[in-house]
Amino acid sequence: MVSKSDPKRWQRILSGPVLVITGAGLSADSGLQTFRGAGGLWRNYNPMTLATPAAFALDPKLVWEWYQWRRDEAMKAKPNAGHVAIAQLATRGQDCLIVTQNVDDLHERAGTPVNQLVHIHGDLFLNRCTGCDYSNREPICLSELPPSCPRCRRSPLRPGVVWFGESLNPAFIERVEDFLRRAKCGLVLVVGTTATFHYIIEWALRAKRSGGVLVEINPEETELSGAADLTYRERAAQVLPELLSF
Question: How far is the CA of 142 from the CAs of 69, 127, 146, in angstroms?
Fold first, then answer.
């Protein structure tokens, strides 16, 4: 299925620094719905209208109910072969950074070391206060929505994800920037993302310009397709196990 016409060259590529960028398509292979997919509606709500600060201000209980449902779905899902292949790549001892747009914990459960993983859009299972710097990972009781901050006792807790219209965590950006500054990538692997965010495109192209081979795995064409050195129009769980083996 996956052809690597020059095995020795491919082995050299895989042995160097690797930047992996993953998106919703990877988790979709584990059964999780994507925001933009045909099955993405929840109770007839468009998720893209719920994942905003304005939606939370208007109806925090509704937003929390959606995120509780997403947590339940994520906990039922299992890492697929694509997650496992990426985790195995990350644990080979080479310089590797996985930047995921997914807020689930499937990378971690597949075995990806947390020090090689950046959840650029936040953490689905994190609760953080809207008024102070408190956060926790405690389960939320459905009968007490929206939950209140146990520290300041004034502000509600919110899911620890990046909503549309919000800025990325500067510390997470710096982790990616630091990797790009110090690592001359052998491989830039873009998996299951529509590449609609400018920073995702920029990071992938910068890593390619440093000498990396840009490989895109996505059933559909994206903004990065024209820059890809190698493209697979297949599911990540089908392609990655063989592609990342040597």
Answer: 10, 14, 8
